[in-house]
Write the structure tokens for this entry.
Amino acid sequence: MIVAPSRQISALMVRIFGRALVVMLAWDLFVVICYKVLHWTWIGANLPIGSFGTALSIIVGLRNGSAYNRWWEARTLWGAIVNKSRTLARQVLTTVSAGEDASALEKAEAAGLQRRAVLYQVAYVHALRQQLRGLDPLPEVARVLNEEERQDLTGQKNVAVALQRRMSALLVWAARRGWLNDWQWQAIDRSMDGLMDAQGGAERIKNTPMPKQFDFFPRLFIQIYCIILPIGLVETLGWFTPLGSTLVGFMFLALERIGRDLEDPFENRIHDVSMTAIATTIEINLRQLLGDAELPEAVKPAEGVLW
């Protein structure tokens, strides 16, 4: 996610649209030279540029609205993962208990189970953000889990779900030991259900791209509009045609690019939802609940991008 000051965004835009601007400017100059110097007066057609632009802006606006809705839903789902992760950790740490009359060994076992369950959740959020970006999740979870647990996850198609299964099995075992009553287990289970719902929503966005025609035709219409724009303006603007035509064309190209950048929020690009920062924040919060003194550093923007 870009969080840079405006001057860095300007540099990014020049890098992205530089070639398009040069091509548009060259075409606009060609049209105005043909009209003014070569006296090809027929090239100055009286086209309804305003009507075309209005229709095109509506089409691009609808597409960009759909793209932003996908991006915002992705961010909302990760917000739910943050909340459910904190709730789950709190529930585990406050409800799983061996009881006052238990032996010191049993109390130590219950405390160890609490820690394992919370660390499973830490591993889960890192595994999920790696999976959504199409990256290998195992190196990220390796620093949280022991060797046996890492080996058990090798070959899993969905490591995040496998971690939730392990956590669920761990808590069921605690319930059978009498460390959780039915009401406490049901509350924890609802939190885990919320995590699965959020993961399913994120995977739906990841695996369901925008319809191709919804992506292709707005781009095609903008390219056609940029071609006919100087032809419709040259008679009115004359030598100022490149200024007006290039500026308007750039605005439409920029809007179209914004939609394409936002429509896929889990592609490991600079426009992604900042899942690394979110997952690291969750890890810091959960490790603080465990009482750990050594915490990971919060993720900071790198070259104007928060990952």
In short: Residues 102 and 108 are 10 Å apart (CA to CA). The chain has a mean pLDDT of 83.
